[in-house]
Write a structure and sequence with these properties.
By secondary structure, the chain is an alpha+beta fold. It folds into two domains: about 25-165, 60s Ribosomal Protein L30, Chain: A (2-Layer Sandwich), CATH 3.30.1330; about 175-420, 2-methylcitrate dehydratase PrpD. The protein has 16 helices and eight strands. The strands form two sheets. The chain has a six-stranded mixed sheet with strand order 3-2-4-5-6-7. A two-stranded antiparallel ribbon has the order 1-8. The radius of gyration is 21 Å and the shape is globular.
Length: about 425
């Protein structure tokens, strides 16, 4: 493949695969708030968080990391202002102390923060305003979790950039396509990605083991192993589910994300690692499979957008299913069919926010991806004209992407309305 495209794909992996502590939506609020606090120069007396519906949806029911049991936008914003380190971005809460937590609880009780819904903006948009005395600060994030597009102090603009999806990434995502992804994987110089991909597996495996050994949420991961045994398929479902059990319910271990999501980061990596170990493949094939899984997930999310009513576990598991096919030595045709079979089966599963049941959705998505590969391996696939399946895999990905991006907009609005009902 062209060296220019190879380099861009490498940059995409490095841009997307970054560590994060906790669910990325409350962390994005905490990050914006920490930057605003630094801009203000002192502890705020009041905070207003303007937030898109998808952010509200994904913060409502998830425990903010380091707090033990606290949830919600107000907690995220106040804790970010009190104890957040803006230089650590998605690990902004890493250094939070007990004193910070005590102060945060006090300020939450005093109701110094209020939340307002942004209507008609980006699916991922956060504006944090705060003030103390006569001074004010404002920070706006849009389109990706750390993409700051505006900073103001006392009404004066200190930083601004165009708030459009194309500016949220430093890479050219329009270059993504299946042929080049497969070429990239085949031609990959392993030294370019080994450290990054091994760190992804290491971090995500650690939180999965914590999820299996602890008592988190509904314990989906543990339930799978207890109920269905410890075979490779059960382990491939259980490990990312267990990581989500822990992550959605307050575990302070970091994860390596994909497409802005820790749940997706675990789903693209852990099933692949499970199968790589089971099959005894060499390091070369294992790393190439992980690169394939990550890039196919990123490609789909580029069609869908960072946040929507379409559950991201589906696109992540689709990547994992393709990588499992690759680990078995499958042809590109079988890999394509595995992708189509997964999408034809489970696409349309809705995202109703970050919470304990994300673990079960991950398990269901991985199960669908494994079935998709097994069907493809036996030359069984869904065909063009059957639902949203098109004449080739590229068109099928775009078809389901359009359904999630455009067709499910009204679904997204209705989900938020239902979630906000008392």
């Amino acid at each position: 493949m062209e060296q220019r495209i190879y380099n861009e794909y490498l940059k995409i992996l490095k841009e997307e695969l970054i560590p994060a502590l906790g669910c990325t939506e409350p962390i994005a609020i905490a990050y914006a708030s920490a930057v605003a606090r630094k801009t203000l120069g002192c502890l705020p007396e009041w905070i207003v968080v303007h937030s898109s519906g998808n952010i509200i949806k994904n913060v409502k029911a998830v425990i903010v990391p380091t707090t033990g049991d606290m949830k919600g936008i107000e907690t995220s914003a106040i804790l970010g202002a009190v104890g957040g380190d803006p230089d650590k971005k998605l690990e902004v809460l890493t250094g939070v102390t007990q004193e910070d937590l005590d102060l945060t609880r006090s300020l939450v009780r005093r109701k110094i923060c209020r939340v307002e819904l942004i209507e008609g903006g980006a699916n991922l948009q956060i504006i944090v305003e705060m003030g103390a005395g006569g001074d004010t600060a404002l920070v706006e994030i849009a389109f990706s979790h750390t993409n700051i597009v505006r900073i103001e102090r006392n009404g004066e603009t200190l930083f601004t950039k165009e708030a459009v999806p194309e500016k949220a990434a430093s890479t050219d995502r329009s270059l993504l396509n299946l042929r080049d992804i497969c070429d990239f994987v085949d031609e990959l110089q392993l030294d370019d990605v080994a450290e990054l991909l091994n760190k992804q597996v290491s971090l995500n495996m650690d939180i999965a083991m914590e999820g299996l050994s602890g008592d988190y949420g509904a314990n989906v991961g543990s339930t799978i192993l207890e109920s269905f045994g410890t075979g490779v398929q059960a382990r491939a479902r259980a490990l990312p589910a267990a990581g989500s059990d822990a992550r959605m319910n307050g575990c302070v271990l970091p994860v390596m994300i994909n497409s802005g999501s820790g749940n997706q980061g675990m789903t693209v990596s852990l099933p692949v690692e499970v199968y790589a170990r089971e099959l005894g493949v060499n390091e070369d094939r294992r790393l190439r499979a992980l690169a394939l899984s990550n890039l196919i997930a990123i490609y789909q999310k580029n069609e869908l957008g960072k946040l929507s009513a379409y559950c991201g576990a589906v696109s992540a598991a689709t990547g994992a299913g393709a990588a499992i096919a690759y680990l078995h030595g499958a042809s590109r045709e079988v890999i394509d069919e595995a992708i189509v079979n997964t999408l034809a089966n489970i696409s349309g599963m809705v995202c109703d926010g970050a919470k304990a049941s994300c673990a079960a959705k991950i398990a269901s998505s991985v199960d669908a991806a494994i079935l998709a590969y097994e069907m493809a391996a036996h030359n069984r696939t869904f065909h063009s004209g059957e639902g949203l399946v098109k004449s080739n895999t590229e068109e099928t990905i775009r078809s389901f992407g359009r359904m999630g991006r455009e067709g499910m907009r009204s679904t997204d609005v209705e989900i938020l309305k239902i979630m906000l009902e008392e």
